[in-house]
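Milestone 3.1: sequence recovery, worked example.
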């Protein structure tokens, strides 16, 4: 029997990387192809344990490069595409939106054209709750799959645009698809420009932690392995054409998150430095995951168990994040913040 071929785009990044490892281990009967351009956010060091496995393959390519992507699909005839590759950092989208339009919108369209021309079993598009815009602080309100799209940042606008293209290829050409929209992920291999790994790495180095505005903005935290299990389920059981929200009811203010980490590491809250707010900073995200729960998904982690596991992982894997914060990223951080 020929092995199913699963193309994972962005598999050198944070969530795609965890998903590739999860799939390679769980499904020896599938061939997993990790396609990634290896931008500043991608690295292959994280895959040292799986890179010799027979069912893991790496392809270096740009999803927006039509001349590379279409022939690749013609040659490999993938069964599934799980599409993570994107520019993912909101702050970078505020200073440089152009690359977000190219990668997130044009890159998705190239992949959709390739999938349409060659024919696939399903295209799973990994999106974000940020496409719904922001909620106010009323704790009884949540994003459902029917919430209108109202993205506020150049990042979320580019993701919403790609969601609409995926939907259109389903409606117009009958391409089999699912779209998933998850809340903020955290866990191993999270790039240290995002709030949780930034806080852990800076606190461990006794450096100030920049908290935007008054720290009262709320995010709904999802452990990356719970997200991987959700995508696996949607890939195999999701109803063709449907959207699924992914989130585990773990709302915290940013200040609560930062204080939790500082206290777990037994450091002083004096490390907190309130800085200028992010432009257009969304107040609150919160997911209603009922539809996915009906499909059979439930998170394994609470925020408490997940954050402890994550902090321990950063303590055990210093060499991974230290080599990142010592390079190009250090220059980015210095350009964007003026902290001691
Ligand atoms: P990430 O920034 O860690 O990784 C992105 C990966 O995509 C990197 O490996 C990068 O090299 C690759 N990439 C970028 N441009 C590319 C291109 N042109 N061609 C090929 N590869 C390219 O991102 P992440 O946090 O792992 O997010 C993955 C996906 O999940 C994104 O689509 C993001 O919008 C979505 N998402 C993320 C979160 C979160 O909390 N991190 C939450 C909701 C949704
Ligand atoms: O230094 C910081 N200080 C701070 O207060 C940083 C980097 C962030 N913040 C705040 C901004 C947000 O309210 O913390 C919150 C989380 O910020 P990020 O980690 O940048 O994530 P967010 O902007 O919420 O977006 C994330 O979740 C949704 C991912 O980066 C997106 O890719 C995903 O779609």
């Amino acid at each position: 029997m020929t092995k199913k071929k699963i193309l994972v785009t962005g598999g050198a990044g944070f969530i795609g990387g965890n998903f590739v490892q999860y799939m390679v281990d769980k499904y020896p009967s599938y061939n997993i192809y990790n396609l990634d351009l290896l931008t500043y956010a991608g690295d292959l060091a994280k895959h040292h344990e799986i890179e010799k496995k027979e069912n893991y393959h790496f392809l270096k390519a740009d999803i927006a490069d039509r001349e590379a992507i279409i022939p690749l699909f013609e040659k490999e005839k993938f069964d599934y595409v799980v599409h993570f590759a994107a520019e993912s950092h909101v702050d970078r989208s505020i200073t440089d939106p152009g690359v977000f339009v190219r990668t997130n919108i044009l890159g998705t369209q190239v992949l959709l054209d390739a999938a349409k021309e060659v024919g696939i079993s399903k295209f799973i598009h990994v999106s974000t709750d940020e496409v719904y815009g922001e909620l106010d602080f009323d704790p009884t309100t949540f994003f459902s799959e029917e919430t209108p799209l109202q993205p506020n940042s150049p990042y979320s606008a580019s993701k919403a645009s790609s969601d609409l293209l995926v939907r259109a290829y389903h409606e117009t050409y009958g391409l089999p698809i699912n779209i998933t929209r998850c809340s903020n992920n955290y866990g191993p291999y999270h790039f240290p420009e995002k709030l949780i790994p930034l806080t852990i790495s800076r606190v461990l180095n006794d450096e100030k932690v920049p908290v935007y505005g008054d720290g009262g903005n709320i995010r709904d935290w999802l452990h990356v392995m719970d997200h991987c299990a959700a995508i696996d389920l949607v890939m195999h059981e999701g109803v063709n054409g449907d959207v699924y929200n992914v989130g585990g009811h773990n709302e915290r203010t940013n200040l609560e998150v930062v204080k939790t980490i500082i206290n777990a590491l037994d450091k002083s809250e004096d490390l907190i430095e309130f800085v200028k707010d992010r432009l257009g900073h969304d107040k609150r995200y919160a997911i209603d995951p009922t539809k996915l729960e009906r499909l059979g998904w439930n998170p394994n982690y609470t925020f408490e168990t997940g954050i402890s596991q994550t902090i321990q992982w950063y303590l055990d894997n210093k060499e991974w994040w230290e080599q990142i914060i010592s390079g190009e990223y250090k220059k980015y951080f210095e350009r964007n913040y003026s902290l001691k």
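The first strand starts at residue 4 and ends at 9. The pocket of thymidine-5'-diphospho-beta-D-xylose (ligand 2) is lined by residues 88-90, 128, 130, 184, 194-195, 198, 210-212, 217, 219, 254, 278 (CB under 6 Å).
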